[in-house]
What does this fold into?
Amino acid sequence: MKEKTKVIESTQSLGNDLAGVMALQRKLTGMERDLEAIQGKLDDMKIEAEKLAEEHPDQAGEIQGHLAGIQEVWEELNATMKRREESLGEASKLQGFLRDLDDFQSWLSRTQTAVASEDIPTSVTEAESLLTQHENIKNEVDNYKEDYEKMRDVGEGHPRLQALDTGWHELRRMWENRHSVLAQAFDFQTFLRDAKQAEAFLNSQEYVLSHTEMPTSLQGAEEAIKKHEDFLTTTEASEEKIHGVGEAGRRLINDSNANSDKIQEKVDSIQERHLKNKENANELLTKLKDNRELQHFLQDGQELTLWINEKMLTAQDMSYDEARNLHSKWQKHQAFMAELASNKDWLDKIDKEGQALVAEKPELKPVVQQTLEDLQRQWEELEGTTRTKAQCLFDANRAELFTQSCSSLDVWLKNLEGQLHSDDYGKDLTSVNILLQKHQMLENQMEVREKEVQSIQSQALALSQEDAGLTEVDGQQKHVTDNFSNLQDPLKLRRQRLLASKEAHQFNRDLEDEILWVKERMPLADSTDHGKDLPTVQLLIKKNQTLQKEIQGHQPRIDEIQRRGQTQSQVDGERQSALEERLVELGELWDQLKAETDKRHDRLIEANRAQQFYADAAEAEAWMGEQELHMMSEEKAKDEQIALVMVKKHQTLEQALEDYAQTIHQLANSSRLMVTSEHPESERITLRQAQVDKLYAGLKDLAEERRGRLQERLRLTQLKREVDDLEQWIAEREVVAGSHELGQDYEHVTMLRDKFREFARDTSTIGQERVDGVNELADDLIESGHPENASVAEWKDGLNEAWADLLELIDTRTQMLAASYELHRFHQDAMEVLGRVKEKKEGLPSDLGRDLNTVQHLHRQHNTFENDIQALSGQVNQVQDDAARLQKAYAGEKADDINRSENAVSIAWEALLKAGQARRLLLLDTVEKFRFFNMVRDLMLWMDGVNLQIDAHDSPRDVSSAGLVIANHQDIKSEIETRADSFTACVDLGKSLINNNHYASDEIREKLAQLQEKRERINRNWQDKMDHLQIVLEVLQFGRDAYVAESWLAGQEPLVRAAELGSNVDEVESLIKRHEAFEKLATAWEDRFVLLEKLTTLEEHEIQRRREEEERARRPPTPPPAEVAQSEAESQAHDSAARTSLDQTTLNQTVSVNGVHSDNDTSQQSLSQSLSVGQKTQPKRVCKPKQPERGSESESNGPGRDSGLASSRLEPSATLPSRGGAESDPDTMEGMLCRKHEMESHSKKAATRSWQNVYCVLRKGSLGFYKDGKSASNGIPYHGEVPISLGDAVCEVANGYKKRKFVFKLRLGDGKEFLFQAKDEAEMSAWISSIISSMPTGSGDSPVGPRALSRAMTMPPISPNSGEGGGVTMRNKDGKDKDREKRFSFFGKKK
It folds into this structure.
């Protein structure tokens, strides 16, 4: 160990470079494996030392001392190893950073040197080349940016980083500056190239403008102007190029170009020269036009001067001495004077033109003024000479002159006539113009001769005054005048023909001029000069475009010639055919010119494309030649970083090469298109394109070869780096995998296991991937035949061994942690399950609920609770299974802990199950209890409802209604019997709960007693009500039979009491027969009267009660026992209630016998006293009914009468049916009516005003509405409407309503208004009367008032003593000894 320590310490001075540090790290990795072996030996020594100490106690101290020394050396070795590993790690990082920093600094210096170049391009091509190189440097800098940022992160705080940052930022700043300089230089060279072309144009223009001279003839002036216009067209074509140069220069100046001063100077110079050329060209054009006008004026003046001189010679001829030629002289002179007069306009015209020319061009005033003055002077001399000669000739011989004048004029007229009939209209334009001029002279002469004719006329007039040959003079004068007049029309006709001839010859001249113009331009269009380079071709294209524009501008003149040719007509057919041929020739030449121009344009475009292709191909060859130098470099990388930089740089070159493929492709497409289109230079283009393609293919092959070499070198350096990094990474992972810590508790071991799982997963995934990657990379290198195959194989084997050792350590550590985790997890699970079981037990509620719903909810909750417990049972079983399994694997103290945990869980689980079962049974009993209580409550409520039904029935008013009430009462009995099963089920349930010892048995027993008691009570009530209804039915039947009997007795009484005995035998016999018939009838009625005399059940009960009272009165009073007294009191109370019910029913209904009703004001007290023993009651007085009817008892349910099921009312009403409308209670009425709600208030109409059928029930002071009679019986209003009050109401016939018949109106005090429709007028009147009668008044009704109904008395009169005999005498069983009055003592009597 000391040796190892010395070896480790001896490495302190090593590792000054990255290779040395990495070698030391690998060496320390090997030493770590040795230390692990030493660790095993040390452990063995400890065990052996303990054994030796036990075997040799006397030497134990020495042995322990040696062992402690060894341990101290071991700890020192580990500490030294750890310190060295840490220092080597830091040194490795530092050396790697320093190496990368040195490499980066070296690259940075080289790049700064390349960027700092001060080369300034002198041409556009050179500027483009420098810009491309500079962009490549930028791409390289961008590729190094990631390395720069990585070095800054790794070497944060290192002192050399400041210099690195400065150099990096300085490089970027230098690149930006250099890029700006190169871009400006490129723009400047491009500007200079364009400016040079523009200056060439300007030089040419200046030369032309400076060498143009003013012509001295009109034709020369015309040709000079035409030539200058062509020059201006060319100037305009180049003006766009000059403006483009100026715009480019100004843009560069605005961008602050470094050569702004030169650019500005050049732009100003070009602009100044261009403007100056334009001004000079315009001035020259103006001068040429002025010169043309001047030459035109001078030519006109010269022609007039020649003419004046010629005429002056004629005017100066004075040889007229001989008389024979005097007249001819005179005539000639007259013609001469006429010619002078006609040409005076010529002088005036020249004078006006001269004045206008002077006004427009003052600089021409001397020449023009001199010419005009000379012409005026010569003209005045000519006129003076002419006038002198005329006067001399006229004075010579006036008479002879007249005769000669007439004869000479006549001769001239004949001469003129011959000329006018001439067929010579000119053979060309010049001859026609001459003929026109001659004709114009003839016309002028005609004007002069006209004056001469006028002179002859004046002379004839003068001669006639002298009376010398008057007749001859008039004849001559008339003859001359007529001949002169006859020549006017031929003169005009000849002029027209001459003008037509001139037009034809002018057209021929124009046609010839256009043909000549086309022929002059044809050589330009036919030219085969297509230029030798790109600028020359572009210039030729512009010239050809100028020619095309000129041809396009000349098109209207050609069209005009063609149009005029179509409208020309010549007399001469031969000339016409010649004209057509010339027109055809012009059209062909014009079409040929345009076609040749277009062809030349196409040829020039093709030449331009070819020249452009040659220029692009030359540029591509130059670029590829430059790139080829880079591809042939043999530089090799020393490490991965340099190799990566070289690869990136090569990728940049390859990308540029790939990008340049588009340019090559474009060249190929261009050449293909030109070859396909059969370009004249197809062979040369194909050859040039083949050269470019071959050069590009060779360049790509070189790039491919260089990339392969660089990639091979890069892969080797990457493999070396990967192997070193992976070995270091494996060494770091082995330290973690060799740990022996297994955790103190479940959380700790879980944390350790999870972390180690993540560690193992990451190690296995990442490490295997990295090892596979390195192996694959090594195999690839070996298979590819790399020169360093042996080193690669050695690296691979060492790496695989280290990786296998790491995986073995990880597997061992994983198994140990899994066993520890399983044990701690068991204890944790047991604690958690025990806590959950206790929590469940503590959370078991004790509340049993207050009603059935609550208990059922608690039962459902308990079911959920039991389900949760079942889910918990799986966890308990899992704990038990884990305990059984772990007890087999562990022994001793750990086995005891496992057993204790399992027992605690099992005991708590059994206790929880028992508590849940007890709770479930208790909730089931509670459910049964509340279910029983609900059944009892439902039956109790039902019995309360039945009691209400039993008590709710009104007592019947007649026999039929009594039968209906009894039938309804029987239905209640049926319902009670139907409920018997429910009572039985409820009682059985209660008894079963009591028998099962339910915890609420006392309460259940009490509920059962209450139910049975109430059931017995409801049966008794029903029976009592049934007995009462039977009594009422018996009473009603007795009243009906008594009424019938009384009616029969009343009908037979007059026959019995009649005093008539007959006045003769027949009458007596008749009376006897009638009496015999009466006796027979009386015999038949005897049985009925016997039945009437039989006591009713009510009377029997009353007799029985009185007898009991008499017997109790006879017995001495003895206090009964408490129970008996209580029972008797209850019995008496029950009997009293029954009697009271019967009495009240009878009194309230005021039962009548024989259909006689009690008065409305009869009090209940007085009627009640009529049933008491010892009480004497005087019945109120009744009136006889108007029309008693039979069989009306069947009409108990008729309209306006209450059903027997209706609730009892406070006001008295009859129980028996009325005998008709007149006998019914006017305050009560029922029936179906059709109702319409008209008004809601005094000023508001009702929302719903439709007619509706309603069942109307009229009570005193109110009117209710129901759906039908059944709803009225049950008290269910129509749509919940409250009965309306009739206070302050008005009821009358609705006379204003015409839509329906039998309609009456009811208007209430609050403004509501209703319309009612009856079925007929009688029913309408009855309702109106009843409603009016039912309206409340301020005071009570009088017993004998008009509203009281009349009563009928059908029995015989009672003796006066009957009222004093005291009270009602009850009948005995026989009934014959009693007073007759007893039969009707139960009913009210008449007074």
Q: What stands out?
A: Confidence is low (pLDDT under 50) at residues 1120-1224, 1339-1391.
